[in-house]
Amino acid sequence: MTPPASALVRSPGDDTVDPAAAALLAARLARLAERLEWAAVELAAADPAASGRWRGPASAAFDAARSCAHERLVAAADAAGAAAAMAARAAELAASAA
Amino acid sequence: MSDELILSGGGSVAVATDALLTALDACERAAGEAREAGGGLDLAAIRLDDWADAGAAGHALRLAADRSRDAASLARAAEPPAAALGTALRLAADGYGLAERAATGAAEFAAEQLAATVGRMLPGFVLAAMPQVAVVAAAAGVAALVVPGLAAALGLDDELDAAGAGVRDALGHLVADPRVVALIRQGVMVADDAVLGALGVPPAMGPLLGEDGAGLAGMPLVATLITGIAGGVGLLRETPIRMAESTVVTSGEVDPAQGWGERFDRIPAPAADGDGMQVRIEQYTMPDGAERFEVYVSGTVTFDPVAAAEPWDMTSNIENAIGADGASVRAVVEAMRAAGIDESTPVILNGYSQGGGVVARVATIEGFDVVGLVAFGGNTGQTPIPPGVDAVLVEHDDDLVPALGGRQDNEQALLVRREAYGDDAPPPPGVLVPAHRRPAYAETAALMDAATSDRLESTTGRFDAFTDGATSVTVSTYRFERVP
Is B6 helix (H, G, I), strand (E, B) or coil? Predict the structure, then answer.
């Protein structure tokens, strides 16, 4: 869930970050990473020829395109996971500085 | 035996295997997730940047923003190939459906014209061939009387039995061939054109009068002709019915059918069950006191063309095909009324074989709130199931019985097809219509439970949720008899 805008915008002259808002954003990033990862897993398992009716060149073309989309989803999930970890670290730092 | 389920209907032109639809769902979900994540990650990066100037956490926030932007860019790059895959699969499914429809339509038109022409020639041909037919029939009759006695005298009983079994097997293989079944389905649809042709109606007029035109001909015309001729020799004569037996059991333990396998198992099998009950009705009391019902209807019990005591017979099969309510339809309606089902009580109807055809006909009768219908191996093709009914029709491509119902015109229903037997798993010997047997449909029901496409899973969810939260259940069973 997206944190309310008021929690994400610092007041004028305020140079601190609300640790709770940062933690909330970190959680949202982690969830996006999870969803991307799950989409990648589901896509990897997608096999329209599983029951044997759809084979040949169409199947090979499908595999190639699926592989491309899968790689990008995995990379996106990894980057989103890294962003979540970094945002969580920022929330910790903000909390200890408060 | 094939494990492949082919899904179609449900208001879509697509015809595809469950595996293909599952892959399609995965591609479309992946594209959607990638698009949504791209936007969410970009927004997060803007917010992180906004915070990044702040004191102690600034560096970490800046790094988080960079990673978030990278992730957004990668997610956006994943969307086009995933979406393209989804589109390709959807086109494949829609294209297959449209091609199948066009091929079937063209074949049917050609067959109608041919049937009408043959029909016009038929009266003359029958008159010319009458003497030969009489001779062959007489020879066959003599052979039927003499051969068994002769075989016994010569000690050739076993050889005669083996020959009979061989013929049965060959016939079993023939009617289990999906191409033959498709041909029979086609034949059912054009039989009325042959009749119209024999009556002197020009071939071009047939389609205008048939099921795709004014609806004056079609299957009912042929079935009426059959009952008219059979009635003349004492066969297929309809009779009144009476409720011979009923049982009622109320239980606090609510155990509704979950999934297609359990639903199929609850359909009565009068001979195998040993109690002769043809109808089972489950009445569920919901938390607000409202009542909901599940009705289960048996398949054909006897194939005897002479209407005796059993209402689930050939006479009912033919009467139901005419569109008149045969004994089995009237029996189910009587059982439903006896159980308290009316226009204010939602009901799901389930049937197998003749029971499938019966529930389709009952769904067309006013006075009931039919919300769902499941027919396994029923001849439902030309029975117009009302559009508001959530219908699931399960047919085997190598099963003769649904084919006898003609072309499947209930396009709003979800049609689940499967080939029960194949080259790698031939049908069992000595069984005439193996793909129509209960075990074959029980296996299909189990495959439907294991299916993963959204199309079938969401339908399963709707049917399973029908009795969610019920607090008690009353189960009643009924046996009906014909009154000669």
Answer: strand
Q: Which amino acid is at B340?
A: G
Domain ranges of chain B: 23-104, 110-232, 241-482
Per residue in B445-475, pLDDT (tens digit) is 999 999 999 999 999 999 999 999 998 899 9
Ordered by start, the domain boundaries in chain A are 18-46+56-97
* Bridge-based pairing state of the strands B472-482 and B279-285: antiparallel
Mean pLDDT, range B200-209, rounded to an integer: 63
**Segment B248-252 mean pLDDT:** 81
CB pair distance less than 8 Å for A94 and B57 = yes
Tell if the CB–CB gap between A39 and B30 is shorter than 8 Å: yes
Q: What Rg value do the Cα atoms of chain A yield, rounded? A: 20
Closest chain B residue by Cα to residue A5: B47
- Per residue in A26-37, pLDDT (tens digit) is 999 999 999 999
Q: Which residue is associated with the tokens 């469950």? A: B18
**Whether complex ipTM tops 0.85:** no
* Tokens standing for residue B222: 């042929």
Q: Which of residues 12-41 of A touch B (CB under 8 A)?
A: 15-17, 22, 25-26, 28-29, 32-33, 35-36, 38-40
Its pTM surpasses 0.90:
no
